[in-house]
Amino acid sequence: MPDFGFSIQSSQPIDLDKTYRAVYNFVKEKEPSIQRCIYCGACGATCTAANFSQMSLRKVNLLLLRGQIAEVRQLVEHCLLCGKCMLVCPRNVNTRKMILLIHQALKMPLS
Amino acid sequence: MSKIAIIGGGIAGMEAAIRLSALNFEVHLIEKSFILGGHVKNWHMLFPDLSSATQLVEQQKNQLRDSVNILLGIEVIRASYTNNKYTLYFSDGSSNTFDAIILTTGFKLFPAQRKEEYGYSIYSNVITSAELEEYFQTDKPLYTKEHRIAERIAFIHCVGSRDDKVGNRYCSKVCCVTAVKQAMETARRNPGAEIYLFYMDLRMFDRQFEDLYFQAQTQYGIRFIRGRLSEVSEKPDSRLFLKFEDTLLGKPLRLTTDMLVLMVGMEPAENTGQLARLFNVPVGNDKFLLPKNLHQYRNLTNQPGIFLAGCVSGPKTIGETLTDARSAALEVYNYLNRN
Ligand code: SF4
Ligand code: SF4
Ligand code: SF4
To answer: A2 in a domain, yes or no?
Structure first.
């Protein structure tokens, strides 16, 4: 196929009727503070891993709610568990615990 | 004794009447419908403390002294101004002369039919926030028109507000917190229901509003999604199919719900333009009446003896409306004692 220098991306609408919330619910059960997130993005702005990846806990939280687990997996594997995000979060979300629980739910090894 | 006309018998008009009659003025409270209490008498609970709306209106009615002359079912059709006095001509053929007038005609709810793409009065399970509030007067859970318990409900913010397409650029101020309050009440009545709020911005500006939002998230699991509804269609089973963009993720969303609640905003009451012409008071580009300025003269107009209180000069909460009415009463007092 000739290379046109661009590719077509499907718009991939998220169907909330079929949202897979099991991972979100698992985290929420054990760390209810995840529900307080207001998606302000302070965590992503200060994130150490964001210097070399797309990591943003704001995005992780939203993707979890929308059941976009593959993307969650890609993002959280960059986390260093440094805890800077916890220092800046205005809603006191226990961000490190959240990440650990996501690792647990997705059976990801901690690097 | 100075005579004051208060035009509009909602909570602003009643509050001003209570205060001015306590100062021994002769107060005439003129209401075009046959009941006092305006919109508030139809509400269930008030944000943020979930106190009773009926109680507030009843308390005000009890405080209206015998000295307030209450005229129901009457409208002002003409006015003239001579020797610092206004003569008002009423729809029942009578007339009377006053030293000062307070306009307290408030607002009307945005007619949701005008936002046709949201399907109000086309699809049976699309209702307005005002209808939901009245429904809350019963203690029943929320049912669809087909008498199924509603298991998924979406609230749509800014219907008829912040929308050039319907000619209203302003924010109606109270609908964000009303949506949060109503979502929580719905969650109490329909346990286990999935409740979504679709907002453009969440304006939790006043005391305890943010607490309500926090409680909605943590205690009731209300799902807040930033994005504006584009259109609604009905499925064969009369459920509703909604399209949004999740603007925080930048992805299109699709959702089917049992019911849709439209958070209708405020527009100036029907006769606001007529009053503006009658008394020569300017209107803003939002079509609400303009006070002399928006800081220290919020109750004064550019006309002597004509005062404003409540939502006639733009959307306000109940607390703000009552404070505004008391402040207008004091301005009237100062005006009548100016010499
Ligand atoms: S703990 Fe993880 S997500 Fe938080 S700032 Fe550190 S690297 Fe980023
Ligand atoms: S800083 Fe806290 S509230 Fe803000 S997006 Fe991150 S987790 Fe959510
Ligand atoms: S208060 Fe909220 S819902 Fe109402 S118009 Fe303003 S932003 Fe929209």
So the answer is: no
